[in-house]
Every structure is written in structure tokens, then in C-alpha cells.
Amino acid sequence: MATQVIVLNGGSSSGKSAIVRCLQRVLPHPWISFGVDDLIDRLPPAMLGSPAGLTFGRRGKVDVGEDFLAVQHAWLVGIAAMAGAGVRIILDEVFLGGGASQERLRGYLTGLDVLWAGVRCPPAVAAGREIARGDRVIGMAATQAEIVHEGVRYDVEVDTGRTESLDCARAIAAHVR
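^ thats the sequence. predicted structure below, dont judge the formating
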């Protein structure tokens, strides 16, 4: 079976978005990308800063509420349906719960051929990128740099602190069937 979904997991400012753009260039077929930031950008403003939605605390801590989980459920069901219908998907994720988050996503992707890719970046490098971006809660990158990988099992891992995005994408693409 050919790979239907590539899941990139890494902390904020780890370089996932740049890798996605490179993957879309180096992979031989069209791949559609979705990311947790896309979902957050489309939330109604009332869900941001609400305990039922998403709250951002000190040092970039993210708390997820029941309303966000309900929206995320529908989002993931839709993404899985698209992949099942033949659309190749690259999913840019941040596993705040580490391995538990991976298992939850795995449940949505049952029956699909998934490539799990870890995108690592040293906390200091990610923190520098976070400041340069100017659109993130300060501290989020350093806070997430390691915790998103705890208990997660990958098919391939890359490190954007040592390797350029294009080379990371090529390393991931080498694992696509």
C-alpha cells in the first residue's frame, strides 16, 4: 500500500511548515497540507482564551478545552475521509500529550498507510525562531521542544537545528511508499 498520510510532529517553531513546503515540491504526486495552526486560525474568536476552547498560559503552556476537542474531532474525521478518498495528506501536528496524542490521532487514521515523522529542533534554536516570527506566545517553542516527542514512535526523525528544510524533506520523502 502507498503512503496516504504523512504526520509531522514537532514543537512550535521547529520547522514543520518549511518542511511541508519542501515535501510538496520533492514528492512525485500532489500532497495537500493541513496543520493544527490552520484549525486554530479558523476558530471563532470566542474560543481563543476560553477554558472551553484554547488558552495560552505562561511560557507558552497550551490548555485545550472540550469545545476545541469537539471541533478538532470533526476536523480529523474530515482529514481521514479525504485521505481515504485518495487525497494524499501531510498533517503538521503538535502532540501536546506526546504518545497519548499520537495514539488518539492513530485512531482517526485507522486503515490508512501513515508515515510518522518527528521534527526535532533544539529548544534554543526554536526559541530564536519564535522571537523572529513575532506571531507566537513567547516560551511556547522551548516548552514544546521536547514534550511533544515523549512516548511518540516515529518511522523517521529529522533535526532542523542541524539540517536544512529541503534535506529534512528529502529524508522524510525517502520513507514514502
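Residues 81 and 87 are 9 Å apart (CA to CA).
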